[in-house]
């Protein structure tokens, strides 16, 4: 059986002066050759790994606190603590430490770190101890001066602490306090305030244990009421005895636990309310007080967690319908404070704590509490729920999916949370903001688990959209039945903004679930009604929602937007905003600019065809003119399908293809009968995207017949372009004046330059800017084909871009034949 006497927890003090749990193990002491001395060793009880290996340094100050703690500093900013399960084990290790340092085991601190000058050290050697004046009324001023003068020096602090501790001085001072208070001796009370405050700053656990004992703590608080800097004494004791009541909602049978709870509350009150805010120099002097409270809380949580009867009674009364509302209110507040205490625990201990609560049925209990009418009770339940969601959202998701098989949608836990968010009476919606954050955590796929047997994301999102989404969107749908929001007050607008924020998050992180919901329920059209709100923040939320949808570049969404003319409310909002340069103006322009830059063809055509007249006069940005240009380029390509087909074939070489495609194309070249090729006719390898060879070769043959009418210079250019196996030539279309253009664009736009930077579908478009192409004008309706002047440079750049396609798809024999 494992020896529990040596079972310890290892703690380190972090930068925030909080203790971090480094693990649980068993401590031993022995000589370590590598450290050249006797050392403390702690091995983890889980795997036997070494948690701590610390040499007992003869000059290190070790402190024994509360009979089961040993605290020391390894370095200037590295404090360690061992918390023993049993007092006997602590005593054994303490004796070993004292033996190495040559100290008496009866002391609680082996020595103090000495920072004094040599002169102080010499004085210390000549003066064996500090003599305190007699504890009398007429000597209180001398004692106050002695305490104040001792605090700056660590050595004098240590002597003062030993003197106060050894002579039982604190109890004598508290007797004197009662005398001064009876005599209303304000001068003496002011001196006692300074003395007790100084004793706190001695940072000594042994003194705290005396001061915080049941018989002394109220008198200590009384001394701290008489601050000389205040005109009237504070009434802390009156508050603690009359106002603050200990409500024992479930009887606590363990007297030690009851005393520990009382003590912790009062010490916490002293730290937070009674003691003045410590200065920068005094802050570290209260580190032992922080530690005292921390370890008390850990002990309280552990004792309550181990008391199965207590927790069973607690949850039984919480869920019992016969429990009175006042009683349930007290039970919920206790549970909230219990969970708040657990936040001081380290991760592994907190895991065990919440698992215990889960096994006890905390989630069904919360469901009952959230259904109550009492606002305070629901607020406390929300805080408890936030602890659970933060700890383990998967546990909450699993519970709500299981209960959906038994209960109606109206009483599901998540729907109760949504309803409380919607019905928040706070004008600033503080509770709704908190609940919305919890819902966001629950529907976030990033923290959902995926195992071999089940996918939490798929299951939970299907559940959420089936059972909960209609509850979440109900206020939005109810408020957007007309062309303007039916209710446009500030609180309603804030709530709708919160709902939109969550829906926007769903658009970004959920796929088909939210898409189906938006399209089937026509959610976007309803959301865009909010662009007419008098509250700019709500109108911007609606725009942000649509912008996220457009940003997905999903054709399902795009067709839905076009079919329902959903840009209309956006254009209306833009025009009604007028010439004001504000966030609304910028947000709408950015949306149209995104459509132009990303070349979303369907939306571009829809915007120009339906809203161009309303937007054509906007010239302070080039966004709308750019959209019109995009549209005209699309129309030109549609009106000249043969040229567009030829250009798409030539463009095939500019995109990467796999090795198998290149090999098939080369084999096709070698299998072609050379006699079948006419002079000057280019054979282009078929792409896997082509419909059929006959459909494509027919327009190519006709194009090449027209090509034969060109002069020899044009023929040479064509030959040069046909030899490029890595890229297709860029070309420019220019129609003569006698040719009637079928495009709807004005004459100035009849010249289309597909090689211009960023133009859609152009062979020369890319991340770099291509130089302007030299135009060749043909007679009649003939089309000229011309290469860029620096086409060779582009070929070299394309070779670098298409590093995978280094093999030329045209064999040398075919190249020579084409150039002949």
From TrEMBL:
Gene Ontology MF: a single term: protein phosphatase activator activity
TM stretches of this protein: none
Domain named PP4R3 EVH1-like: residues: 5-101
GO biological process, one term: DNA damage response
Region (Disordered), start-end ranges: 669-820
Biased composition (Acidic residues): 669-681, 788-805
Domain Serine/threonine-protein phosphatase 4 regulatory subunit 3-like central per the UniProt entry, residue ranges: 143-633
Gene3D superfamilies xrefs: Pleckstrin-homology domain (PH domain)/Phosphotyrosine-binding domain (PTB)
GO cellular component terms, semicolon-separated: nucleoplasm; protein phosphatase 4 complex
Biased composition regions of type Low complexity, renumbered to the chain: 730-756
Amino acid composition bias (Basic and acidic residues), ranges on this chain: 703-718
SUPFAM superfamilies in UniProt: ARM repeat, PH domain-like
Cross-referenced PANTHER family: ATP SYNTHASE GAMMA-RELATED, SERINE_THREONINE-PROTEIN PHOSPHATASE 4 REGULATORY SUBUNIT 3A
Protein task: Regulatory subunit of serine/threonine-protein phosphatase 4.
Entry similarity comment: Belongs to the SMEK family.
Name recorded for this polypeptide: Serine/threonine-protein phosphatase 4 regulatory subunit 3
Native species: Merluccius polli (Benguela hake)
Lineage: Eukaryota, Metazoa, Chordata, Craniata, Vertebrata
Name of the gene this protein is made from: smek1
């Amino acid at each position: 059986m494992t020896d529990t006497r040596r079972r310890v927890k290892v703690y380190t003090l972090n930068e925030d002066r909080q203790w971090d749990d480094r693990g649980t193990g068993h401590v031993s002491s022995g000589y370590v050759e590598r450290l050249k001395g006797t050392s403390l060793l702690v091995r983890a009880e889980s795997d036997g790994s070494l948690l701590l290996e610390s040499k007992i340094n003869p000059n290190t100050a070790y402190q024994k606190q509360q009979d089961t703690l040993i605290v020391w500093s390894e370095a200037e900013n590295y404090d360690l603590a061992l918390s023993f399960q049993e007092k006997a084990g602590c005593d054994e290790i303490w004796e070993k430490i004292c033996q190495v340092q040559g100290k008496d085991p009866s002391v609680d601190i082996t020595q103090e770190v000495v920072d004094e000058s040599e002169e102080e050290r010499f004085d210390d050697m000549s003066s064996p101890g500090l003599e305190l004046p007699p504890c009398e009324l007429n000597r209180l001023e001398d004692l106050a001066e002695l305490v104040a003068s001792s605090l700056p020096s660590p050595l004098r602090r240590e002597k003062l602490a030993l003197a106060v501790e050894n002579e039982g001085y604190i109890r004598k001072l508290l007797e004197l306090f009662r005398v001064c208070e009876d005599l209303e001796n304000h001068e003496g009370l002011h001196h006692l305030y300074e003395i007790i405050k100084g004793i706190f700053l001695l940072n000594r656990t042994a003194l705290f244990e005396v001061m915080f004992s049941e018989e002394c703590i109220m008198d200590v608080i009384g001394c701290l009421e008489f601050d000389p800097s205040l005109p009237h004494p504070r009434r802390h004791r009156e508050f603690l005895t009359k106002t603050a009541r200990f409500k024992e909602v479930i009887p606590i049978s363990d007297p030690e636990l009851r005393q520990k709870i009382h003590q912790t509350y009062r010490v916490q009150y002293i730290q937070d309310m009674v003691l003045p805010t410590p200065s920068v120099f005094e802050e570290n002097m209260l580190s032992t007080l922080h530690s005292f409270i921390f370890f008390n809380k850990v002990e309280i949580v552990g004792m309550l967690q181990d008391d199965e009867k207590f927790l069973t009674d607690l949850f039984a009364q919480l869920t019992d319908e016969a429990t009175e509302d006042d009683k349930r209110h007290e039970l919920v507040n206790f549970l909230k404070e219990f969970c708040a205490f657990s936040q001081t625990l380290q991760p592994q201990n907190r895991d065990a704590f919440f698992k215990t609560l889960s096994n006890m049925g905390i989630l069904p209990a919360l469901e009952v509490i959230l259904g109550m009418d009492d606002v305070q009770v629901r607020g406390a339940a929300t805080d408890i729920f936030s602890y659970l969601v933060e700890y383990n959202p998967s546990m909450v998701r699993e519970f709500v999916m299981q209960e959906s098989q038994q209960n109606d949608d109206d009483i599901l836990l998540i729907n109760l949370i949504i309803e409380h968010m919607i019905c928040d009476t706070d004008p600033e919606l503080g509770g709704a903001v908190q609940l919305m954050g919890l819902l966001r955590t629950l529907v976030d796929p990033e923290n959902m688990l995926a195992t071999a047997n089940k996918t939490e994301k798929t299951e939970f999102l299907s559940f959420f959209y089936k059972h909960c989404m209609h509850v979440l969107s109900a206020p939005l749908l109810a408020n957007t039945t007309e062309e303007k929001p039916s209710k446009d007050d500030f609180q309603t607008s804030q709530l709708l903004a919160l709902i939109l924020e969550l829906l926007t998050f769903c658009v970004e992180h959920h796929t088909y679930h939210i898409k189906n919901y938006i399209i089937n329920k026509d959610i976007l059209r309803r959301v865009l009604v909010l662009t007419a709100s008098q509250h700019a923040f709500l109108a911007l939320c609606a725009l942000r929602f649509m912008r996220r949808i457009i940003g997905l570049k999903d054709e399902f969404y795009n067709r839905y937007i076009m079919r329902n003319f959903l840009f209309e409310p956006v254009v209306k909002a833009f025009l009604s905003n007028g010439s004001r340069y504000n966030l609304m103006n910028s947000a709408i322009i950015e949306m149209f600019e995104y459509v132009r830059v990303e070349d979303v063809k369907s939306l571009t055509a829809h915007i120009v065809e339906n809203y161009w007249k309303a937007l054509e006069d906007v010239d302070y940005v080039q966004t709308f003119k750019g959209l019109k240009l995009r549209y005209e380029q699309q129309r030109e390509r549609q009106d000249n399908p043969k040229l567009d087909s030829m250009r798409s074939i030539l463009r095939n070489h500019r995109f990467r293809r796999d090795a198998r495609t290149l090999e098939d194309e080369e084999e096709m070249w070698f299998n072609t009968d050379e006699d079948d090729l006419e002079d000057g006719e280019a054979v282009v390898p078929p792409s896997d995207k082509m419909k059929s060879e006959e459909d494509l070769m027919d327009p190519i043959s006709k194009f090449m017949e027209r090509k034969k009418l060109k002069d020899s210079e044009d023929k040479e250019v064509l030959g040069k372009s046909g030899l490029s196996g890595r890229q297709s030539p860029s070309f420019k279309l220019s129609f003569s004046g006698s040719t009637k253009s079928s495009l709807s664009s004005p004459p100035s736009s009849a010249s289309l330059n597909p090689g211009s930077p960023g133009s859609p579908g152009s062979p020369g478009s890319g991340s770099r800017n291509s130089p302007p192409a030299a135009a060749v004008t043909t007679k009649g309706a003939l089309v000229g084909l011309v290469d860029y002047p620096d086409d060779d440079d582009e070929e070299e750049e394309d070779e670098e871009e298409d590093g995978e396609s280094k093999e030329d798809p045209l064999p040398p024999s075919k190249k020579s034949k084409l150039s002949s």
